[in-house]
Specification:
The structure holds 2 protein chains of 2 kinds. Chain A is an all-beta fold. Chain A has strands at about 5, 10-15, 20-25, 35-45, 50-60, 65-75, 75-85, 110-115, 115-120, 125-135, 135-145, 160-170, 190-195, 195-205, 210-220, 225-235, 235-240, 255-265. In chain A, the strands form 6 sheets. A 4-stranded antiparallel beta sheet of chain A has the order 4-18-12-13, with no helix packed on it. In chain A, strands 11-16-15-14 form a 4-stranded antiparallel beta sheet, with no helix packed on it. Chain B has no helices and 9 strands. Chain B has strands at about 5-10, 10-15, 20, 25-30, 35, 45, 50-55, 60, 75-79. Classes of the chains: A mainly beta, B mainly beta.
């Protein structure tokens, strides 16, 4: 039955709904209340650019010359030669005698002797090639952004919970290292509340698995209110040789938050 | 005029209805909670993945997270 009881150490209000007595208010319960409020303007969160590393994979063969066949007609016989361009005769010089019975050749680089013949070397020279990977990274920073409320003696209160009411904007929209598009952010455009942590940005591989996360947390510790900013990056390979991540230098994101922080306790 | 104290068989009001039996005042309980208050950090990142610790203390990972963050169980609240 609904009722009200009061004694020197307790006030209790009960409401009966149907046949069930439900406590509305009881000073013997630990009841949450706000012991302090702090306004924090322009709290900055800054994630730096990602980095990438070029790993040597191997060397590519590059031929010095291309191959072509040239036919020369000497009455009354056709002679066939394999010669190499870009200059048809840049690798040898022929001094012809009657009927091509003798000749003298001066060879240029790019050819090797094989089985008593001079053959074309497809590796006239080589160039190195690389595969690019976003560097794996675990970043974390913790800063004190406010003092906790204190009692009349100036001692920090042991708060039981913190509720954060926030507005925030992304002041620099970092791009996905692979694409010319900003990383999606989960920060609402209007006022929002949270306790604990907040996911700011994430990105996935083509397979759907996560490779990139950025979060922030606001929580009390000791006599301070802490802001913890974390970034986790799994190494991501480009999947193509000699192709760097085109937007690696544009992955920095920055945020600015205005925080209204409510410090709460359950019992004085 | 504000109600200082008014008690009827079905309703109790006091202090200008700041205390009213038809409201639901939340309070900390040891069981039978309706919701929980989170008391600290409840997400962590590692290896490119994310762990979210529910207010009940249960960790929910994506398939990538490789850390060991535990988090804390939220405080039980009754409405």
């Amino acid at each position: 039955m609904s009722g009200f009881t009061a004694s020197s150490s307790r006030i209790r209000v009960v409401e009966t709904i149907g046949s069930v007595d439900e406590t509305v208010f009881d000073t013997d319960d630990d009841m949450p209340h706000i012991v302090g409020t702090t306004y924090l303007a322009s709290v900055a969160v800054d994630f730096d650019n990602l980095t990438q590393t070029a790993s040597y994979v191997g060397a590519l063969c590059v031929p010095t010359h291309s191959l072509e066949r040239v036919n020369v007609y000497v009455p009354s016989v056709w002679y066939s030669f394999i010669v190499w361009t870009p200059s048809s005769y840049d690798w040898y010089t022929d001094t012809y005698t009657s009927g091509f019975m003798s000749f003298d050749r001066t060879y240029t680089s790019g050819f090797v002797s094989h089985s008593w013949e001079w053959v074309y070397d497809p590796c006239g020279y080589t160039i190195p090639y690389f595969e690019y990977s976003v560097d794996a990274e675990e970043y974390s920073s913790v800063t004190n952004i406010a003092d906790l409320p204190t009692d009349e003696d100036g001692t920090a209160l042991d708060v039981d919970f913190v509720i954060v009411q926030a507005t925030g904007i992304r002041t620099t929209g970092g791009k996905d290292a692979r694409f010319d598009q900003s990383l999606p952010t989960t920060v609402p455009t209007k006022t929002f509340s949270f306790q604990g942590s907040l996911l700011l940005e994430s990105s996935g591989e083509a397979s759907g698995g996560s490779w990139f996360r950025r979060i922030m947390s606001v929580y009390p510790s000791g006599s301070k209110l802490k802001l913890k900013v974390q970034e986790s990056v799994k190494s991501l390979s480009r999947g193509a040789y000699d192709s760097a991540f085109p937007h690696i230098g544009e992955t920095r994101s920055t945020y600015s938050f205005n925080l209204k922080v409510f410090f709460g306790k359950f019992r004085q | 005029m504000a109600i200082v104290l008014k008690i009827t068989p079905t309703r109790f009001r006091a202090s200008g209805s700041k205390l009213d039996s038809q409201r639901r005042y939340i309070r900390k309980v040891s069981s039978g909670e309706d919701l929980r208050f989170v008391n600290g950090q409840n997400m962590d990142v590692s290896g490119g993945g994310l762990r979210y610790v529910q207010p009940t203390g249960t960790a929910v990972d994506d398939s990538v997270y490789d850390g060991s963050f535990i988090g804390t169980t939220g405080t039980r609240i009754k409405v």
